[in-house]
Amino acid sequence: MSRDRFERALLRVLRPLVVAVLFAATAFPFFYMVTLSVRDIQELILHPGSILPRDPTLSTYADVLGRQGFLTFMRNSAIVATASVAVTLLISIPGAYAVARLRFFGRRQVHFLFLAVYLFPAIVLAIPLFTLFTMMGLRGSLAGLILVYIAQTVPVTVYMLRNYFESVPRSVEEAAAIDGCGRVETIWRVVLPLSKPALAATGLYIFMIAWNEFLFALLFLVEKRDSWTVSLGLAQLSGGIEVPTTVLMAGSVVLTLPIVVLFFAGERLLTEGLTAGAEKG
Amino acid sequence: MTAPGRTLRRQEARAGLWLISPTLVITLVVVVVPLLWAVMMAFQDVRLISVRRTGLFGHHTLENFAYVVSQPGFWPALANTLFYTVAGTAGSVAAGLVAALALRDRFRGRTLVRAAILIPYVAPVVAVAFLWEVMLNPQFGIVNTWLERPIAFLSQARGTFLGIEVPVALLTVIAFEVWRYFPFAFLFVLARLQALPKDLEEAAVVDGATPSQRFRYVVLPQLGRVIALLAVLRFVFTFTKFDDVYLLTGGGAGTEVVSVRVFDLLTARGDIGASAAQALVLAVALVVLLVAYLRFHGREAEGA
Q1: Which end of chain B is more exposed for a tag (fewer CB within 10 A), N or C?
Q2: What is the pLDDT of residues A131-181, one digit of tens each?
Q3: Same domain assignment for residues B119 and B149
């Protein structure tokens, strides 16, 4: 057999095998997460090897949402993430427009600053912010956490929005200007409606960062249980031994599901937005 | 003649600064100024209980650096950080490349597999770290029911595998890193692969190149830049990563990395000065490694 035919035959076997391994390695843990979350802890101890639950129960969810306080944690996470998205977009839209369209002193330096902020390690920033918030008595407040998330997401948001704003034809904006729109009005009435997919994508990105974040939530909120986010709540409770593992697994599902659903919903919305634009030419 | 143009230009510049100022203010106030403060504190004797009494420009000293570098666990932690970062970066980029190549051509169910691959990266780190802890648990973890003898993956510093002594927990943490971040590399490489012009490869087929030759001499060279970019990005992010190791092992069982030491100095000891010095040592080490890499890589690219 020639080398070419041998390699082709090998690939025909290898490719499906690699795909199967990748699928198992990524999908199985999450499948197991869900099936474990509807089991009683006794069942896990007695039959640790079983994949499907023998006697499915939703009492784990009732326990984690009610008694363990995950409903409160979800509310906190939702407040933090939504506020971060709103304020970050509000700040970033004019900034991104300025970088995309206007010539001003320091425009190039701004890029460098943003790249530096994006790459800068959170663990270094954690030290002064933790100190400052302790001094100001801001620890335990969600507002402080939101402020940090805004600062951490603004640079990337400006960068992502700028790329999109640059693709909006100047002629559309000029037409708006001739019709008597001021600069802010042009952004509001012309640029933003044209940039809906980009706004959705960046909003999603900010929401995910804020919902998933752990280090700053731990540093700022750990002493005040009522203010815990879902991530922090799960990390704190899984460190102890009081709460059964299957109940915490229900907590993991509650933490993971909104983000995964949002991500895939957003991804589809994005591709739809792009193809719709292409059809119109 | 030039007067109206100049005022328009000036107006534009003023509007630009005006629109960018909220972005700049928040970045300066919440990121840049605190960082400068952290650098100052690294050279001062500051503790959480006495921070109010320490002036901004008080007595400066190198004691914090001498202290953190001479602590018994520092050098092992730095070695762990380096090993964890290099192995995690190489593993996740390699796995991402393999995944992208495997999913390059259409097949039934590709969308589903692609979605599954993205979940580890999208899911919250706390949830996936907890999931791994449960699955690898020596008593009731499902992975251990598949093994002959249970392994304490996350709490055992050393073990033997095929007669060789291996750092069990550290390798497990690296496996987690690869699993969680290969989707990131996968996305980048797949996007690049799908943008490659088909005709080069078709020409290679006509010339009788085998699949492995086409990959080695046609596809891989065109992926060089994206792989180099991914390597730098993953290296930077992993070198200072805190969450993953802290959540999986808390820095125990021979997995302590420098960022976990920074956190412990800050919260458990309340020693802000030492913590800042430790973080600064980490950041400087990162910059030195990056500059060395870029020098080396730049020269290599020139030679090619």
Answers
A1: N
A2: 998 888 888 889 999 999 999 999 889 988 888 888 888 888 888 888 888
A3: yes
DSSP letters for B121-175:
HHS-HHHHHHHHHHHT-TTT-HHHHSSSS---TTT-S-EEETTEEE-HHHHHHHH
On whether the CB atoms of residues B134 and A36 are closer than 8 A, the answer is: yes
Which chain B residue has the Cα nearest residue A213?
Answer: B124
Q: So what's the pLDDT on residue A269? A: 61
Of the candidates A125, A150, A245, which has its C-beta nearest B134's C-beta?
A: A245
CA separation for the pair B62, A102 (Å, rounded): 46
Q: Is residue B174 a contact partner of residue B273, using CB atoms and an 8 Å limit?
A: no
A196 touches chain B (CB under 8 A): no
The verdict on residue A99 lying in a domain is yes
Residue B233, domain CATH: 1.10.3720.10
Q: In DSSP terms, which residues pair with B161 in a beta bridge? A: B164
The total number of residues shown for chain A amounts to: 281
- Residue of B14, B23, B239 lying closest to A158 (CB–CB): B23
Cα torsion for B159, B161, B165, B170, to the nearest 10°? -60
Band of pLDDT at residue B1, cut at 50, 70 and 90: very low
